[in-house]
Amino acid sequence: MSFTVLVTNQPPTGDDNVPQSLLDLFHRYTSVTSGRVFSPYQHQAQAFRTLDKDGEVFLVAGTAAGKTLAVAVPLFAKLQAGRIRKILLMYPTIALMEDQRRVMEGLAEITGLRIGQLQGGMSRSKLITALNHPVILATPDEVYWFFRKNVKYSGLLIYGLALVDEFVLDEAHLFNGLMLRNFEHLWQRIKTLTDSLGRSPKLHILTATPTEALKRLNQAEPVLGKSKCQDVSVEFRPSGRFDRGDQMVAAVSSALTAGQKKVLVVCNSARMAHQLFEQYKAANTSIIPVEHRLRFGRVKLGDLLTWLGKMDAADELIEQLNTHFFREDGVVLADIPDDTTVTVPLQDMTAHIAEILEQQCWRVKCVLWEQSQRPGETWESLLKNSPLPCRIIAAVRKHLENASEVERRQTIVDEWLTDTVERLSNIADDPIRCKAPAFTALVEACTSAGLDERLALSLVKRLAFMMKADPTKLPLRRLSDRLVNLRWLDWAVDKDKVKEVYALIRIGLESGELEAEYRHVGLWRKTDVPVIVYSGSMAKQAREGLLNVFADLHRAVLISTSAVEVGVDFQADTLITEECEGNGFLQRFGRVGRHGQGSQVVVLVSGDTYAGLGNFEGATISREDFSSSILAVFPRRNYAPGSQVLNASHYLVNEQLGRIGEKLNARPDMEQAKPIAEQLRTTDIRLGYGLRSTMPQIALRDGVSKDPFYLLRYVDNEDLRPADSPFDVARARTWFTSLIFQPARFGVTVDLDETLKASQHLFMLSRGQVRVYARPGIGGYHLYNLQRQFSWSQRQALYFVLLHGDVYLSRIELGLEMPTPEAVTDAEGNPLFIPNQTYLVLWGWTDNQMTQELLHNAGVADWEELIYDWERFKQSGNPYGMVILEKTTGACFAAYKELLDYVGRQIPS
């Protein structure tokens, strides 16, 4: 059961009525990139004329409309003519920026201009170099990173941005809710910086969907563009949640049987995309062009060296590869096989243990102060019984108990740390020979230095996951089986040997004598059609270039996610996709119909959506009307409209910018945020800072990071390690691809008991004024007094409690009749928590349906910036109520205010 709609399109016409210099540059670019000379589309020509007259552009057009060239050509021409000095182009995703860089490099080659790129983590010298280019590419996140970094980076960025004449925000419709509010603050900073120098920067907006919020960013009249697309047949099929994968596979097979050349499958989750790829790919890849196999293939190191030896490669070349991969192998002590003996240099061991102890002693000193404020708590309870810091407490307990002042107790901990590190550095054995997995000799070395045996065991366990092992000392068999990415070879050998190595490997691959595996490329089962998987859950280096393979192949299937909605410029003959948010679907839809007739789309939709579009059955409809219908019927995302706390966080950032910051903070909206900002500073609340998500993640082995509420559904405590980054909750000794066929084993929820104990700050809104109260454990203290004084009811706003502090996690095992929550810990027994979070407790809201109705009626249901802890309603008894966390700073406060407004009263003084 399905129905089909024919979507027609009237492509844009050409328009050469533009300044000759711009037309010449456009012709040269199209000639170089496509071998033909084209005329600009009407909307491109209109943008050319506007930019040439130094106006701002607000260009509204879908995919395949040439939006980037519409602004890039006149801007490059103005740079070349010396009319402006610098432009900065901002893209919402790194993937889009990297793709559009190719367009910019084509124009740069013609005009002789240089391109720089901003990225987080750049050194001061690299930042200066990037800012000195006339064309700068960046994502707003990267610019954000520098504003928050410190004064020296802020000063450099202020100088660099003040020299930029014109800015471009591409795919601006991806900015919504608090993300858009954050960008508005960023743009205000930039404008104020340049205004102070008597200059007026321009902002050009490129978007597929105009919104009133986007229109506020510049004063331009919208330029409406058309896509250069052919007619497309769209089939809507009703689909249930559990048979959707089978329907996608059937649709792919039908498209291939019908002779379609390029089939794009877009799933809503990376999990489904990778499952389909792994289930339906065949290992044979001989049909893949060898240049792509050289880029994406992996071979065993032993097989590679054997093949090169067989081909009479020079001995020094083989030795160079051997040495390089030994040196670069990221093996830590915990990775080496059992009963393997290794040597550990004393200096390295001492340095790592000193680093571990310094971190743990800092935690202990914090708890010593906290316990002085909460005398009813023990040091161990405040440390959540974490093994390492508790054993440090045990080592100095007598001295601590004999001291009464907090400062003296903290000094005792510092003295113990200094003495311990000194004694460790004086161990007689160097290096220390030890055997995996217990590394008993390392434990004995620590105890010989005076450490308690249990503390020594905990230290060595942590050390094993931090300290690199010497690969040259490991069994040869293990290293021979290690997979080596072939694309690594261009930096693994001397430059003058690269061509020789690749030529020899090419022979092996083409003959089949050298076997390689391809993690993300294969053949669609029972066909000779290549299949490729591409998702945001793959490490950046793993997915680079995969879309180029899809574009280059004569026939191929690409299985992907929303990662292809914006990004590289490629097209498909057939699109098979799940129902998704309306704007996202239109982006996916734009991938078909770009070249020639016969393009088709298969959309798997819910019953409600199927019914909502039923009146179009058999219809012929224009692309514009089709888009309007999709936006009206397909699901919409909900976003927070704004937040005073978010504004207050920007107030504090502006204070770092001297006189510029003072001018920014004098604006009316920032003056309103000043009282909250002052309280945030006084109470020392550390808010997360970022354009989009500020929720710390869990890092996987392949470099991918995932939301803890998602990942902890699959990963055991034993596979979790302490985080080594302030942006991570923990590290997981797991690859994403190893999880794709595992069913969820746990439900993850907030451990509200421990979280309330760890709460540090309470927000209260009274008569329009925000108050912030600080004290350890304030959440539990506040709720205890609240329940003594006020009865709970659905209209009692006091029971909406907004708090800040560390959020502890627990989980329940799925499938049990009466599951009991258990704390989430890492492999060392340290409880897992998300540091410095703002969260909202709906105390007493213990009924699932009643809570959903509350959030829906208050207008705060399903906000993209929030995480809702629905798992707690599956527990046997939920005596507390709902917990809501924020993905983006300020979202919980926005929800809190909406809830107060909904119940019709404010919290009294």
Can you offer a commentary on this structure?
The protein is α/β, with parallel strands linked by helices and 909 residues long. It contains 36 helices and 33 strands. The strands form 6 sheets. The chain has a 10-stranded mixed sheet with strand order 11-16-17-18-10-19-20-9-1-21, sandwiched between helices. Strands 26, 27, 28, 29, 30, 31, 32 and 33 form an 8-stranded antiparallel sheet that branches. A hairpin with a 5-residue loop joins strand 16 (521-524) and strand 17 (530-534). It is globular and about 90 Å long.
- What's the alpha carbon Rg, rounded to whole Å? 30 Å
**Mean pLDDT level:** 86
Query: What proportion of the residues form beta strands (DSSP E)?
Result: 15-25%
Strand numbers in spatial order across the main sheet: 11-16-17-18-10-19-20-9-1-21
**CA-CA gap between termini:** 61 Å
Give a count of the beta strands, DSSP E runs of length 2 or more.
33
Q: Which consecutive residue ranges, at least 5 long each, have pLDDT under 50?
A: none
Q: What's the CATH H-level superfamily name of the largest domain?
A: P-loop containing nucleotide triphosphate hydrolases
Largest sheet: 10 strands, mixed
- Give the overall shape: globular
CATH class of the largest domain: Alpha Beta
In total, the number of domains comes to 5
CATH architecture of the largest domain: 3-Layer(aba) Sandwich
| CATH fold assignment of the largest domain | Rossmann fold
Structural class: alpha/beta
